[in-house]
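Inverse folding, one chain.
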């Protein structure tokens, strides 16, 4: 059941990540990332709230609330960067590096908070880093609107680290709290992003062509949050994060099919090593 929840969440995240880039790219204003992610997380909170009858919390303690709010703060940093990275790419670099970093953080900090790693999980963690390095060797970029590779890598690493931090926080909530932490984290992220956008003067009116993909991004992110929270509460944080590390797969496939992004041969080697790393986590 834990793996099924994690796989379903991973697929939802992969498509959501791609749609986040489409929304911002269609809008054409990089500073709109704060507005779109604020609206998306608000929609995600509403979806999580509607799902409460499916996994009604038996109890929700102050500790659950604090960890969920901390996860929301992590999302508040990660999601605008994710949207910017996906919109200006190259997705073939941003998505896999983000995914590998987001799984490495829980694997590293999980044991400090009580998780135990098996030999296979340790091996998977050691493979994750060379996989990220291989994936980062991109083909020549086309188009002046592309981010420089070092900047794209920095965005992917920082966003992935905070997504991994959110995973660690979710893992500290109790199974009895159900999807309550998902509601709190999404609402916290929405409030934080809205406040930052308004205080910084970057709250923009969404353009029509960016709204539909943004709605898809928010809806799928909300579904992914519900599923991942349930998975983190019931399984090892490192293992669930490893399965969620597969999310860049559908993202890259969509970028290849719909945006015709190039993927270098050496990157396929990085993908292969990354899949092995995730498999070692999942079966460790």
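Residues assigned per position:
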């Amino acid at each position: 059941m834990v793996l099924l929840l994690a796989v379903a969440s991973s697929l939802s995240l992969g498509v959501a990540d791609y749609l986040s880039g489409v929304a911002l790219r269609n809008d054409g204003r990089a500073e709109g990332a704060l507005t779109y992610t604020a609206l998306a997380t608000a929609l995600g909170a509403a979806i999580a709230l509607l799902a409460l009858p499916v996994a009604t919390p038996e109890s929700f303690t102050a500790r659950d609330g604090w960890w969920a709010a901390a996860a929301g703060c992590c999302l508040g940093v990660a999601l605008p960067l994710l949207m910017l990275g996906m919109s200006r790419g190259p997705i073939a670099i941003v998505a896999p590096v983000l995914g590998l970093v987001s799984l490495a953080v829980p694997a590293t900090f999980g044991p400090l908070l009580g998780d135990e790693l098996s030999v296979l999980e340790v091996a998977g963690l050691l493979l994750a880093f060379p996989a990220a390095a291989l994936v980062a060797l991109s083909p020549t970029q086309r188009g002046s609107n592309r981010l420089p590779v070092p900047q794209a890598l920095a965005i992917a690493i920082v966003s992935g680290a905070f997504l991994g931090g959110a995973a660690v926080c979710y893992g500290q909530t109790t199974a009895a709290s159900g999807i309550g932490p998902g509601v709190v984290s999404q609402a916290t992220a929405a409030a934080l992003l809205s406040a930052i956008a308004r205080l910084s003067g970057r709250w923009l009116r969404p353009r029509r062509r960016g709204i539909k993909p943004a709605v898809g991004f928010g809806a799928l992110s909300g579904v992914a949050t519900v599923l991942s929270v349930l998975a983190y509460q019931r399984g090892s944080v490192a293992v669930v994060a490893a399965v969620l590390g597969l999310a860049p797969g559908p993202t890259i496939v969509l970028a290849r099919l719909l945006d015709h992004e190039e993927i270098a041969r050496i990157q396929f080697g990085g993908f292969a090593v990354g899949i092995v790393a995730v498999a070692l986590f999942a079966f460790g």
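Confidence is low (pLDDT under 50) at residues 140-144. The chain has one domain: 2-283.
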